[in-house]
Design brief:
CATH class of chain A: Alpha Beta
Helix content of chain A: 40-55%
Number of domains of chain A: 1
CATH superfamily of chain A: tRNA(His) guanylyltransferase (Thg1)
Strand order of the largest sheet of chain A: 4-1-3-2-5-6
Structural class of chain A: alpha+beta
Bound molecules: 2'-deoxyguanosine-5'-triphosphate, triphosphate, magnesium ion
CATH topology of chain A: Alpha-Beta Plaits
Oligomer: homotetramer
Distance between the termini of chain A: 45 Å
Order of helices and strands of chain A: EHHEEHEHHHHEHHEH
CATH architecture of chain A: 2-Layer Sandwich
Radius of gyration of chain A: 20 Å
Amino acid sequence: SKFEYVRSYEVNDACLPNCWIVVRLDGKSFHRFSDVHSFRKPNDERALRLMGRCAMRVMAELSDVVIAYGQSDEFSFVFHRRTAWFGRRASKLMTHTVSLFASSFVFHWLEFFGETVLRFPPTFDARVVLFPTDRCLRDYLSWRQADCHINNLYNTTFWALVQKGGLSPSQAQERLKGTMTGDKNEILFSEFGTNYNKEPEVFRKGTTLIWQKAEKKTVTQLPKTQVSRLDELGSASTYLSKSQKRHRAVVALNVDIIGEDFWQEHQEILAD
Amino acid sequence: SKFEYVRSYEVNDACLPNCWIVVRLDGKSFHRFSDVHSFRKPNDERALRLMGRCAMRVMAELSDVVIAYGQSDEFSFVFHRRTAWFGRRASKLMTHTVSLFASSFVFHWLEFFGETVLRFPPTFDARVVLFPTDRCLRDYLSWRQADCHINNLYNTTFWALVQKGGLSPSQAQERLKGTMTGDKNEILFSEFGTNYNKEPEVFRKGTTLIWQKAEKKTVTQLPKTQVSRLDELGSASTYLSKSQKRHRAVVALNVDIIGEDFWQEHQEILAD
Amino acid sequence: SKFEYVRSYEVNDACLPNCWIVVRLDGKSFHRFSDVHSFRKPNDERALRLMGRCAMRVMAELSDVVIAYGQSDEFSFVFHRRTAWFGRRASKLMTHTVSLFASSFVFHWLEFFGETVLRFPPTFDARVVLFPTDRCLRDYLSWRQADCHINNLYNTTFWALVQKGGLSPSQAQERLKGTMTGDKNEILFSEFGTNYNKEPEVFRKGTTLIWQKAEKKTVTQLPKTQVSRLDELGSASTYLSKSQKRHRAVVALNVDIIGEDFWQEHQEILAD
Amino acid sequence: SKFEYVRSYEVNDACLPNCWIVVRLDGKSFHRFSDVHSFRKPNDERALRLMGRCAMRVMAELSDVVIAYGQSDEFSFVFHRRTAWFGRRASKLMTHTVSLFASSFVFHWLEFFGETVLRFPPTFDARVVLFPTDRCLRDYLSWRQADCHINNLYNTTFWALVQKGGLSPSQAQERLKGTMTGDKNEILFSEFGTNYNKEPEVFRKGTTLIWQKAEKKTVTQLPKTQVSRLDELGSASTYLSKSQKRHRAVVALNVDIIGEDFWQEHQEILAD
Ligand SMILES: Nc1nc2c(ncn2[C@H]2C[C@H](O)[C@@H](COP(=O)(O)OP(=O)(O)OP(=O)(O)O)O2)c(=O)[nH]1
Ligand SMILES: Nc1nc2c(ncn2[C@H]2C[C@H](O)[C@@H](COP(=O)(O)OP(=O)(O)OP(=O)(O)O)O2)c(=O)[nH]1
Ligand SMILES: Nc1nc2c(ncn2[C@H]2C[C@H](O)[C@@H](COP(=O)(O)OP(=O)(O)OP(=O)(O)O)O2)c(=O)[nH]1
Ligand SMILES: Nc1nc2c(ncn2[C@H]2C[C@H](O)[C@@H](COP(=O)(O)OP(=O)(O)OP(=O)(O)O)O2)c(=O)[nH]1
Ligand SMILES: O=P(O)(O)OP(=O)(O)OP(=O)(O)O
Ligand SMILES: O=P(O)(O)OP(=O)(O)OP(=O)(O)O
Ligand SMILES: O=P(O)(O)OP(=O)(O)OP(=O)(O)O
Ligand SMILES: O=P(O)(O)OP(=O)(O)OP(=O)(O)O
Ligand SMILES: [Mg+2]
Ligand SMILES: [Mg+2]
Ligand SMILES: [Mg+2]
Ligand SMILES: [Mg+2]
Ligand SMILES: [Mg+2]
Ligand SMILES: [Mg+2]
Ligand SMILES: [Mg+2]
Ligand SMILES: [Mg+2]
Ligand SMILES: [Mg+2]
Ligand SMILES: [Mg+2]
Ligand SMILES: [Mg+2]
Ligand SMILES: [Mg+2]
């Protein structure tokens, strides 16, 4: 039609070749969302596992994600530096990721929250960030995991002071002003008998999703909600060949990804 | 933390000031999605009304959308040329829009599809397109409505030939090859007694959402699913002042938006 | 060759269609450049006319510039909102503009500075700015001309105090701190008998270049350095048709472009 | 002033951190420029050396260029992956580079072309290309040097056939159609007694500029036009510390940069 010229107003926002592409999404106003839906404080395992379930769907469905990391109301997906998915168009990458995540959140809500009724559909933002080197990609993931640690230690201590210590929120805030990591560990231990390092790893480390060869025993041993079913993995991929994709499954880990060990053990993640 | 430097890898993708900002979303692989969920052919009113319901949520929730237009598996949202929402960041605009739409789609599925079970969460892509002038914005909307007309006339004739005329899909395709608008109207009328212009307007014109002063009688007269409730409209807006937002509601229309009449009647849409 | 894949790392930086494209260039470290080459203070007419000469070359050579405005060490070139020159690629537009301007500066130096030897080749930066409406384009040009006025009034008063009033630069600076337009006019008039409004218009208004039909008498009456020769105007243009380009010449004006009069008189500049 | 809001229409086009930034410039219509100024065919050493002289100025003046490579009417400048010069703004990098190059071209013309009068100021385009890895940066430089080889072998054979072989240009073109590297070497050797590998390296390899410690004897031994004077190197740099910049000079080489040897010998170029 004579109106078709408006197509030329679209821009091609292809990402620079050969960079790691990270899509990070984050829940909009989850402070309010968690209040309205009575999330447990400081951590609601149902919420965290629902987030992980959604991320698994994204990873199984969207080609070429090599690792994903999530904590709180956010998740980061790393597309392989050579992915050609949707011509590396940034808008396609972020909108497919975030819309599948958001629809999955409602789709799976019942499995995790049971009788707690979902009051309104949640929203997430998303952004694309590019990393030219393995080093800065790893620093990015470390940044998010360090953030998880800092927030979680604070929140754990804060809610211990409030829930067990009987302080008001503003008193607890005052008490924690200017404290360092050691101080908070000390408060938890001496006042509440809590060894922070014994807290569940899913709270302290967040959730890391990676691909695992399906032959490995661990896959079938993991609980069902943590492993995407193999038959979900059939979608077309531009970067990974069929044979590479066959026989693999997504596994969820709650481990340190800042140190070298994880990356030594899983060299395939960043491999070419 | 020492990893925080990676923040500097993010880019600010603010849209050029003073341009109309369109976010268009489109269902991913809805050819398959409509098959799996047995959408009626050529048009499934449940699907179209569900799309409209989701768009209403977006419009009520996301500030500064002045008009939205949808057809088939797509919807376009027009943000006011002076919107300052999220600093006009393109990624924020498109991901909030598409993720709220996608989560709403699952959230409201039951209201429209009843016993038809949703088999898997749907995905949508989205993109931002900028238009410097009112003229090219209107041409954009005309482009989408002309597309609706062309596809719908084709599909209506195609499925008449198949469902009522007993042709196989490939025979119907062959029959329609090279036909013009008049030819298809003629086939529909002479062979199936169908006057295309009497087909439901929601199929022929798509769905247009605009804001209406709440005082107007029409608002309360419209069926509930077509009008967003006034109390949903309380979210903060950067462009529209409180007084402007109060007392208005979203209404769904199925009218021609290519000609001058619509724009003459609704001059407030493009007003400064 | 097998290295050719690196071509895919280039990005297409085409400007949004239907926006006015402004390329502004500005001399790098002209504070130092003007010192080294003993520019007259506060204004060196040789320098300003050399700048204008270079801009004329740019305008005659680069297609589709409809107006240019310069003052001090800067010049802005406005490409027509429909120009298709070099596919509207921003990098092509700014680099061709700035490199022709810079090479012309050296090329024409002798004509304006005579025995003052050019000590080193000058550098300019350049940038592209887009304007969706006529209004904001005009506000842009007004911004530059207002800047010219503000700086020139200050500099004129400052150097009067120093050169004629015997103040040291820091005394003059102190004297002018916090003064308004009226104050400076008053100082000039009462202390130095200078009516600022009688100062040369090239200093107060800057230089505006536009196209003029060659038939008009004014063209041939203007001094040669101010009018580009008709036979320089033969270069290919993507936007303007041959017949439009024939018989026109660039003229330099030193007039107010903030008010309505200029634009009323020259409606062809912003015409479609 | 009230017009200042237009500043917000400028965009920040900072390059992605941690990528190599290449600015490549290329003469506009140098086919015509070389004709008008009677460049020698197939190679005009004066032109090539003038290009090298301009590039030296750029390298000495613009901070953080670690290597530059030129051939024919083009030059590529590689800014260090960590440069913070002008906030890595792409427009600043390309326009400063290209405008200094263009003004230098006119400035130094006389030194190389003597009585051949410069008829009009030349123009160059420029673009920014980013490379995330050392490998793709090297492939980029290899691409340009391979291009130099291919064109030069063709041109050398073509002009031998025309100038010495008495063929018309179109006959020579016909003769070379479909020939491979070996064929052209053979024509040159058997018909014109020319051993292509003995042709001047500046023609076959192009010109590579790098920094060298000033102590090294080679610096002072090189002819003056090939080595930028130390006292030109005083300009501020954001990436290199003063002590790193002191005592170094630009040297011009005409060597292979595709193989490993060059990079083994000059590991400092890509060093962090
Ligand atoms: N109670 C509870 N709250 C949680 C949990 N996970 C996340 N949240 C809440 C606490 C934080 O207020 C919020 C995440 O912080 P954000 O910085 O993303 O803020 P928020 O989403 O409110 O605003 P935003 O729209 O992202 O700017 O989500 C949880 O497991 N339990
Ligand atoms: N039966 C039926 N199908 C519909 C209806 N609305 C949309 N669809 C289907 C028919 C089309 O195949 C599809 C929309 O066309 P698209 O060009 O968006 O293709 P699709 O979504 O398959 O691929 P995409 O991922 O967008 O490239 O959705 C409906 O009301 N009834
Ligand atoms: N004496 C004299 N100086 C002039 C004349 N025109 C421009 N200049 C000088 C005065 C200013 O210091 C300078 C222009 O100001 P800018 O803000 O562009 O600063 P400058 O070029 O030094 O730095 P930049 O590299 O643009 O950030 O050029 C003139 O006619 N006479
Ligand atoms: N005779 C002669 N010509 C040269 C020499 N170096 C470059 N040239 C000419 C030959 C080519 O036609 C031209 C460079 O090719 P380009 O692909 O850059 O084409 P040109 O600059 O004409 O067009 P452009 O504006 O870059 O698209 O410069 C030389 O040393 N001698
Ligand atoms: O949302 P914040 O405050 O945690 O920080 P951010 O996500 O980097 O900020 P923004 O959402 O505005 O990009
Ligand atoms: O999806 P299509 O084929 O209708 O056309 P498009 O949406 O413009 O194409 P793309 O989704 O690839 O941008
Ligand atoms: O150069 P200035 O300070 O006049 O202001 P600007 O040109 O807007 O700043 P920049 O050159 O850094 O874009
Ligand atoms: O100029 P060409 O044809 O050698 O190739 P290019 O420089 O890649 O093309 P363009 O100048 O149009 O970017
Ligand atoms: Mg945020
Ligand atoms: Mg959040
Ligand atoms: Mg968060
Ligand atoms: Mg599409
Ligand atoms: Mg679709
Ligand atoms: Mg569609
Ligand atoms: Mg500046
Ligand atoms: Mg300057
Ligand atoms: Mg200036
Ligand atoms: Mg080119
Ligand atoms: Mg060229
Ligand atoms: Mg070239």
